[in-house]
């Protein structure tokens, strides 16, 4: 490759740095009651129930059964129910979350399950849903909803930091074997090219990429922004598995392309 790594912006600008995380021998993650989700769920049910009662009463007793405001009643009842449906899984997760949840240097304990970091084959972050999903090597997964745990930003970064060496080593081994490594259905790397949303880009065509947060119609998302000299490509992080491993693997290929040892 002709590009020089130092001229590129590569990384994920969020969370704690490696020095902070290395100093943690053990982290006991405690649950917290999701007050916001509770208020939204209960309030949505109450509003929807009240409006439903108003509509039923109007249908049964009013001589003007189709009065002009009936459409507003339907709309707000639906919106209230939608809010309840959106936040109810967080409440259910709080009620069903196992104890304890402990992260140490060898692995982590999640309820009755004791897992090593090398048993995690993928991490997926969903800013919009405020959750991290751990994909395990036996095909199962664990969904960690941030609002029901204290210090969610710290424990997510800690999990990523301690899983990354295993995941990155596996990715580099596949790249060295000439294989393509997938980081979700829309992002992949091989020794010569990067694939994003069906587009194939030579590695030396990439001038910059980083992750940024943005809000779209109230939905908070984290986006991969990748640039070449000709255009910019965007990919929602919800479609990416092992985002930080992708950064490390790309950096590894860039160093090889510039004649430096990995």
Task: Explain how this protein is built.
The protein is of the alpha+beta class and 262 residues long. 38% of the residues lie in helices and 29% in strands. The protein starts with 8 loop residues before the first strand and ends in a 5-residue tail after the last helix. It has 5 helices and 15 strands. β4 and β5 (113-116) form a beta hairpin.
Topology of helices and strands:
Layout: E1 9-12, H1 18-22, E2 26-29, H2 35-61, H3 70-96, E3 101-104, E4 107-110, E5 113-116, E6 120-126, E7 131-136, E8 141-145, H4 152-176, E9 181-182, E10 187-189, E11 193-196, E12 199-202, E13 206-216, E14 219-228, E15 232-236, H5 243-257
Parallel strand pairs: 1-13
Antiparallel strand pairs: 2-3, 3-4, 4-5, 6-7, 7-8, 9-10, 10-11, 11-12, 13-14, 14-15
Order of helices and strands: EHEHHEEEEEEHEEEEEEEH
The chain-level structural class is: alpha+beta
Rg from alpha-carbon coordinates: 23 Å
N-to-C terminal Cα separation, in Å?
15 Å
Q: Record the strand order, biggest sheet.
A: 1-13-14-15
Helix content: 25-40%
Q: What is the molecular shape? A: globular
- Kindly state the number of beta strands: 15
Q: List segments where confidence is low: pLDDT < 50 over at least 5 consecutive residues.
A: 1-8
Total number of helical segments? Answer: 5
Strand content: 25-35%
Largest sheet: 4 strands, mixed
Q: Please tell me the overall pLDDT.
A: 83
Q: Brief description of this entry?
A:
The protein has 262 residues and is an alpha+beta fold. The protein has 5 helices and 15 strands.
């Amino acid at each position: 490759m002709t590009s020089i790594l130092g001229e590129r912006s590569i990384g994920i600008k969020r969370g704690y740095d490696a020095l902070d995380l290395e100093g943690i021998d053990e982290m006991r993650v405690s649950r917290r009651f999701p007050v916001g989700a509770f208020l939204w769920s209960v309030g949505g049910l109450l509003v929807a129930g009240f409006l439903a009662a108003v509509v039923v009463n109007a249908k049964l007793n009013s001589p003007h059964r189709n009065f002009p405001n009936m459409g507003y009643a339907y709309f707000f009842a639906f919106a209230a129910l939608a809010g309840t449906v959106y936040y109810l899984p967080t409440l259910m997760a709080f009620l069903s979350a196992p104890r304890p949840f402990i992260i140490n240097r060898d692995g982590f304990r999640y309820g009755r399950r004791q897992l090593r970091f090398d048993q995690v084959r993928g991490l997926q972050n969903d800013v919009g849903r405020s959750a991290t999903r751990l994909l395990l090597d036996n095909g199962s997964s664990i969904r960690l909803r941030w609002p029901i745990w204290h210090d969610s930003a710290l424990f997510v970064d800690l999990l990523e930091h301690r899983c990354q060496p295993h995941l990155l080593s596996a990715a580099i081994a596949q790249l060295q074997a000439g294989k393509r490594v997938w980081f979700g259905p829309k992002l992949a790397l091989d020794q010569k090219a990067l694939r994003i949303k069906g587009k194939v880009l030579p590695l030396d065509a990439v001038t910059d990429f980083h992750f940024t947060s943005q809000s779209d119609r109230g939905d908070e998302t984290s986006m991969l922004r990748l640039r070449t000299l000709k255009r910019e490509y965007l990919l929602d992080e919800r479609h990416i598995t092992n985002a930080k491993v992708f950064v490390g693997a790309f950096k590894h290929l860039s160093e090889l392309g510039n004649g430096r040892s990995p």
